[in-house]
């Protein structure tokens, strides 16, 4: 009986220092792998926020142009502002907005196609475009 008692106590000694070190290394590797995901998540969240802001600026301009009368100078055919100029938006001027107006041909000559573009730079050039048709 004492032999059995000694043998069972020997098996119940607990974890050795080597086993604890291995467990710590495995745990550390898991934590480091998770930590590498945070920058990607932050970058994705920032990109989504910038796209949402650009969509807001696009919709804002479409609504402004929709309220104008048919013959308004802002609705003449061509790019507005003219040339390569853009309307800088946001506190840092990060977003650049312009729009194109095209009067449709017959039989749709009572329509103007308006395409608003908002562009910005974030890990490369990005842009949001929206098109609407205005009627006479």
Automatic annotation (TrEMBL):
<protein>
    <submittedName>
        <fullName>Prepilin-type N-terminal cleavage/methylation domain-containing protein</fullName>
    </submittedName>
</protein>
<dbReference type="Pfam" id="PF07963">
    <property type="entry name" value="N_methyl"/>
</dbReference>
<keyword id="KW-1133">Transmembrane helix</keyword>
<dbReference type="InterPro" id="IPR012902">
    <property type="entry name" value="N_methyl_site"/>
</dbReference>
<keyword id="KW-0472">Membrane</keyword>
<feature type="transmembrane region" description="Helical">
    <location>
        <begin position="20"/>
        <end position="38"/>
    </location>
</feature>
<keyword id="KW-0812">Transmembrane</keyword>
């Amino acid at each position: 009986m004492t032999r059995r008692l000694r043998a069972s106590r020997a098996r119940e000694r607990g974890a050795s220092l080597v086993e604890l070190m291995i467990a710590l290394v495995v745990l550390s590797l898991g934590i480091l792998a998770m930590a590498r995901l945070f920058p990607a998540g932050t970058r994705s969240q920032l990109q989504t926020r910038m796209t949402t802001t650009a969509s807001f600026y696009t919709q804002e301009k479409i609504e402004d142009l929709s309220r104008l009368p048919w013959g308004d100078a802002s609705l003449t055919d061509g790019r507005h502002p003219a040339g390569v100029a853009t309307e800088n938006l946001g506190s840092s001027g990060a977003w650049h907005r312009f729009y194109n107006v095209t009067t449709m041909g017959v039989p749709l000559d009572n329509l103007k196609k308006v395409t608003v573009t908002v562009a910005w730079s974030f890990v490369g050039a990005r842009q949001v475009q929206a098109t609407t048709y205005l009627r006479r």
